[in-house]
Amino acid sequence: MVKAYVHDDKDSVDAREAHDTGIPVSLERLEKLGVIYKYLKTQEEVEQLAKERQYKNQDTVNIQLSTFNNDEKLFNDKLSIFYEEHLHEDEEIRYCLEGTGYFDIRDSQNNEWLRCKVDPGDLLIVPAGIYHRFALDTSNYIKALRLFKDEPKWEAINKSDSADKSNIRIEYLNSIV
Ligand code: KMT
Ligand code: NI
């Protein structure tokens, strides 16, 4: 629960491996980037937080090979989409119900990926406009709750010059200085 570290950036190694440099990342460092990482025991506590922050929608994703009819290609295609560096136009909450995985948060100032390992009970609040990506680990399974402020649509805006220049990205960068 709640373990973050600097990712080693070795892209030749499978994303599912730990990629641990051994350099820990504190919750304070994540908070400076606008990311809140906490452990909540029950789904009721998550619902409470969602209410306080005026979230209106949620869905549950079950990411494992069997969800994709055991079709490795479909499964890997989905994982590649999650692993593309991207941002969202709304703040979003992710809560791990079962299984495990990695959320990589981009620290653009230091050009580093900060890898947050999630176990059941771990929750991340990801601000609008921050670049991030998601990977499964070698256990190949996560069941996660995704909470959305508005429409339960999952629109990823991949890293690009125009995403870099978008209002949401600029607002985010202004919020962390
Ligand atoms: C995201 O925003 O990158 C995701 O929702 C990834 C899947 S949630 C385990
Ligand atoms: Ni995302």
From TrEMBL:
The record's section on Gene3D superfamilies has: Jelly Rolls
Specify the protein name. Answer: Acireductone dioxygenase
Q: Does the entry feature the keyword Ribonucleoprotein, yes or no? A: no
Q: Which domain of life is it from?
A: Eukaryota
Q: Reaction catalysed by this chain?
A: 1,2-dihydroxy-5-(methylsulfanyl)pent-1-en-3-one + O2 = 4-methylsulfanyl-2-oxobutanoate + formate + 2 H(+); 1,2-dihydroxy-5-(methylsulfanyl)pent-1-en-3-one + O2 = 3-(methylsulfanyl)propanoate + CO + formate + 2 H(+)
Query: What pathway, per the record?
Result: Amino-acid biosynthesis; L-methionine biosynthesis via salvage pathway; L-methionine from S-methyl-5-thio-alpha-D-ribose 1-phosphate: step 5/6
Please give the biological process terms from Gene Ontology that the record holds: L-methionine salvage from methylthioadenosine
> Mind naming one GO cellular-component term on file for this protein?
nucleus
Tell where it localizes.
Cytoplasm; Nucleus
CDD domains noted in UniProt: cupin_ARD
Q: Write down how the cofactor binds this protein.
A: Binds either 1 Fe or Ni cation per monomer. Iron-binding promotes an acireductone dioxygenase reaction producing 2-keto-4-methylthiobutyrate, while nickel-binding promotes an acireductone dioxygenase reaction producing 3-(methylsulfanyl)propanoate.
InterPro entries in the record, alphabetically?
ARD, ARD_euk, RmlC-like_jellyroll, RmlC_Cupin_sf
Query: So where does Fe(2+) get bound?
Result: H86, H88, E92, H132
The alphabetical list of record keywords is: Amino-acid biosynthesis, Cytoplasm, Dioxygenase, Iron, Metal-binding, Methionine biosynthesis, Nickel, Nucleus, Oxidoreductase
Please tell me where Ni(2+) binds in this chain: H86, H88, E92, H132
Under Enzyme Commission nomenclature, its number is: 1.13.11.54, 1.13.11.53
The taxonomy runs: Eukaryota, Fungi, Dikarya, Ascomycota, Saccharomycotina
- Cofactor(s) listed in the protein's UniProt record: Fe(2+); Ni(2+)
Q: Recall the GO molecular function terms of this protein's record.
A: acireductone dioxygenase (Ni2+-requiring) activity; acireductone dioxygenase [iron(II)-requiring] activity; iron ion binding; nickel cation binding
Family, similarity comment = Belongs to the acireductone dioxygenase (ARD) family.
What is this protein's function per UniProt? Catalyzes 2 different reactions between oxygen and the acireductone 1,2-dihydroxy-3-keto-5-methylthiopentene (DHK-MTPene) depending upon the metal bound in the active site. Fe-containing acireductone dioxygenase (Fe-ARD) produces formate and 2-keto-4-methylthiobutyrate (KMTB), the alpha-ketoacid precursor of methionine in the methionine recycle pathway. Ni-containing acireductone dioxygenase (Ni-ARD) produces methylthiopropionate, carbon monoxide and formate, and does not lie on the methionine recycle pathway.
